[in-house]
Amino acid sequence: MSNTEILDICIAGQWRRGGGAQYDSRYPATGEVVGTLNTASPEDVEEAIQGAQKAFEQSGWPQRKPHERAAVLYRIAQLIREDAERLAQLQRLDNGKPISETRALVASAAGTFQFFASACETLEESITPARGDYLTMSLYEPMGVVAAITPWNSPVASEAQKMAPALAAGNAVVVKPAEITPLLALELARICDRAGLPKGLVSVLPGKGSVIGDLITRHPLVRRVSFTGGTSVGRHIAGIAADKFMSVALELGGKSPTIVLEDADLDHAVNGVLYGIFSSSGESCIAGSRLFVARPLYEDFMQRLAEGAERLRVGDPADESTQMGPLISDSHRASIERYVEIGVKEGGRLRTGGARPKGGLYDKGCFYLPTIIEGLKNTDTICQEEIFGPVLVAMPFDDIDDLIAQANDSVYALAAGIWTRDYKAAWRLAKILKAGNVWINTYKQFSISTPFGGWRDSGLGREKGRDGILQYMEQKSVYWGLNEQPLPWAN
User: With 442 labelled, which of 129, 164, 427, 484 sits at a CA distance of 20 to 30 A?
Assistant: First the structure.
């Protein structure tokens, strides 16, 4: 992609320059320009939403039979797979993830459209038990215009997880991608066009969340917002939604505990902990960023963990062997460095990492070494605040009840990991840990068929799963009178 090319954006199904400020999308590994585009203007937002409402009302999409809508979504999945390598390379350039990871994300996006196509054409409405001389039914209908506001860390997967069920349900979708990673949302919109989705049902409006995202969220025609991002922004959206009586899905931050019990398989646990925190360079809401290890294991486990972290291949995202690429930006790396400094000032000791790698490509990109800090209490700053980077805080524990109290001592409740051979202990912990997602003897595995979301400051609502399509539909009850005689009211 030429760095002099100005990319069009999708406004109510029309591809053209946005009316907002121009900016560059840059490759985090080198700082090179990937593409230049104009952001959406407030006028573009209004046109997109009005166009979405018109398409919803006039395109016939909501009235199509479920299997007919499903056929278009199956076609979208097929087109993603046919173009998978190009999309994976573009995702690599857009946010710096290693190519092995971006290929998996693109495959996930295709699978998401396929799954919700299937959910659409097999969705069952119900006849409920009658309690009088009438037939009662529970039906589901699309909402209208819905919004998808997506993050920069896994754009193509996040956008698919919102667009696919919303379209399957019969809605129109306005997508606001993260300002610094807009390219895959635009590609998905083009694929929707090629698959035969009616014009106007999808818009993609790049720009600042505080401007474009806010305008979309406040618009009276937008009946649902699905947001993935930071907790403070999620709380702001929830406030707007409360004023509008609008439904929301908020997938927010995390500070997830990973627990290694004394009987754990150490080979599995070491690899799983490393993957849980350092894959995606730690830029993941479900990263296992707090580690609790049974004290008798602690020193041996930490030695093995530090050696494993130092063997991780940090480098060029285009290299097939790279395990950790750059962070998203210099400013984000600086934020992570500040957190590490805070941890050291509060008494933490660096077991490994805590610095930028040097030389060659490292000096051009936003790289940071996998970092492990120990010697802190669970109440210290970096044990409580989300860092969103490759920083693990490790703590020993002696007592299972104290462990549970510490693991649950967080404003977040998104995920947790447990490593043990004792299935009864695993089950007891899984039940008592405050988290929307718990992994036992594995970590950071996902299934589109399984609901995902968090509690507390980690969010509201659920995405994925067969019922994920229902989150984008309104439920209606219908009573069909069967009585032979008039109602007795007037007698």
Answer: 164
For the chain, first and last CA: distance in Å? 78
To the nearest 10 degrees (0 to 180), the angle between helices 183-195 and 66-82 is 130
Please state the length of the chain.
491
**CA distances to 43, 128, 376 from 273, in Å:** 47, 47, 18
The DSSP code for 116 is H
Q: Which amino acid is at 167?
A: L
Closest residue by Cα to residue 290 from 376, 434, 393: 393
- What residues contact residue 455 under an 8 Å CB cut-off, 6+ apart? 413, 414, 434, 435, 436
User: Which runs of E-coded beta strand occur in 156-272?
Assistant: 172-176, 202-204, 222-228, 247-251, 257-260
Out of 207-211, 340-344, 423-427, 484-488, which region has the weakest mean confidence (pLDDT)? 484-488
Q: Spell out the alpha helix ranges (H) of 279-349.
A: 295-311, 330-345
Q: Which of 323, 310, 456, 324 is nearest to 386 (CA)?
A: 456
Q: What is the model's pTM?
A: 0.95
Q: What is the pLDDT of residue 2?
A: 44
The confidence band for 489, taking pLDDT boundaries of 50, 70 and 90, is confident
Show which residues are catalytic: 251, 285
Rounded to whole angstroms, how far apart are CA atoms 165 and 151? 18
